[in-house]
Amino acid sequence: MDVTLLGTGAPAGLPRPDCPCAACAAAQGDDTRAATALLVDGALLLDLTPGAAFAAARAGHSLAGVRQVLLSHPHDGPAVEVPAGLPQPGRVPDGRELALLTGHRVRAVALDAPGTGYAVTGPDGGRILYVPPGGAPAGLEAPAEPYDLVLADVVGRPDALARLRAVGAAGPTTDVVAVHLDHDVPPGRELARRLAAAGARAVPDGTTLAVGSYEDVPDVPRRTLVLGGARSGKSVEAERRLEPFPDVLYVATGGSRNGDAEWAARVGAHRERRPGSWRTAETCDLVPLLKDEGPPLLVDCLSLWLTDAMDAVGAWDDAEWADGGERALRDRVRELTEAVRATRRTVVAVSNEVGSGIVPATASGRRYRDELGRLNAAFAAECEQVLLVVAGQALMLRG
Predict the structure, then answer these.
(1) Residue 344, SS3?
(2) How many CB atoms neighbour CB 272 within 10 A?
(3) DSSP tag of 90
(4) What is the DSSP string of 103-139?
(5) In a 10 Å sphere around its CB, with 0-12 CB exposed, 13-18 middle and 19+ buried, how is residue 48 labelled?
(6) 61, 75, 104, 270: which one is catalytic?
(7) How far apart are the first and last CA of the chain?
(8) Interval 33-85: pLDDT, tens
(9) Fewer CB near the terminus (10 Å): N or C of the chain?
């Protein structure tokens, strides 16, 4: 089964008409995208968009063989004209299945938003799932057979992919292709970087995909370190990387700090933007978590883990530091990095990048700065990917 993407953009396309934003201004060449529409084996058209016949011709296909046109979501604006020779578009009721004379079977998948998803099984047994913009599958049951190809709004609804992974409908060999791409993310390298972290990819309009071929499925790094200064966006970057995965365990190393209203507000803001399905553990005991099997870990942050470790070894007192405290801290850092090296869990850790500004005025401050630099370097050495976030922009240092 082959799928040709006549368009891969949001309903308004990319760039949006008359939009002055930077992402739209940068959307040129292969980064320009028409509204998403799929042509399956030349026989089934999912979503009818303006210029579909021309888009098919540019991709080397004709719509003359289309036997069924299905719509997936409500369309704003004037009705789209149906090209001559195409059957009238329709929609399959949720849960119902449509059998085509071509041997394709189409099952309507219920969503949590207006619209209909479509699971298509080809004559060769290949399976694809198409999810319309702004929606995610609802009422999924586990275990599910994995699809060969998933086309969904990975940027706008990363939780849709998390739901599919939770029940096994998206597995390691599932080719996840992002569609309905809008101007929320700058195109080009930044879009590719974000999607790769989610195990997904984007392709230009007109691309034909062979269903069941997963050589281009990105490998998700097992260990990632995200560095950045205060309010740089490092925590947002770390959280974004794990949004498409289910059952994430968020490890908060800062504790609750009872009575500190400002700290409670910070913690509350973090919780509000995290998916509701994530669990939280407030602990600095990271080694047992890294040794256990389980869902992905998001550790926020190593800076506070170091503060706790330095408290435990008496690092703030010069005499205690000289009398075994420094050696004890080195042992703790070594134990942590060895656990990171051996872990089988997906780990995304956050840490502060310090030492690029004013030299701390106190000996203890300089000691903390130095030890955090050493910890970051040791942790980074065990990670497949290391990023530095500056002004909300992620710079890849490794990976």
Answers:
(1) coil
(2) 7
(3) B
(4) S-EEEEE-BSSSS-EEEEE-TTS-EEEE--TT--B-S
(5) buried
(6) 270
(7) 33
(8) 999 999 999 999 999 998 899 999 999 999 999 999 999 998 776 667 888 88
(9) C
| Dihedral, 227, 228, 231, 236 alpha carbons, nearest 10 | -40
User: Which candidate, 278, 268, 183, places its Cα nearest to that of 238?
Assistant: 278
* Token code pair at residue 359: 């030299």
Question: What are the backbone dihedrals phi and psi of residue 168, each rounded to the nearest 5 degrees, phi first?
Answer: 90, 5
Which amino acid, residue 310? M
> How many Å apart are CA 315 and CA 328, to the nearest integer?
9
DSSP label at residue 14: B
- Residue 281 identity (one-letter amino acid): A
The pLDDT score that the predictor gives to residue 184 is: 93
Query: Which amino acid, residue 62?
Result: S
pLDDT of residue 200: 97
pLDDT surpassing 60 at residue 256: no
- What are the start-end ranges of the E strands in 47-174? 68-70, 97-99, 105-109, 117-121, 127-130, 149-152
The average confidence (pLDDT) of the chain is 92
180 is catalytic: no
Closest C-alpha to 7, from 137, 193, 133: 133
Q: How is residue 110 written in tokens?
A: 């219920």
156, 375, 376 from 387: Cα distances, Å: 22, 15, 12
C-alpha span between 297 and 376 (Å, rounded): 17
123, pLDDT greater than 70: yes
Give 151's strand partners.
130, 177
Kindly state the greatest CA–CA separation across the chain: 87
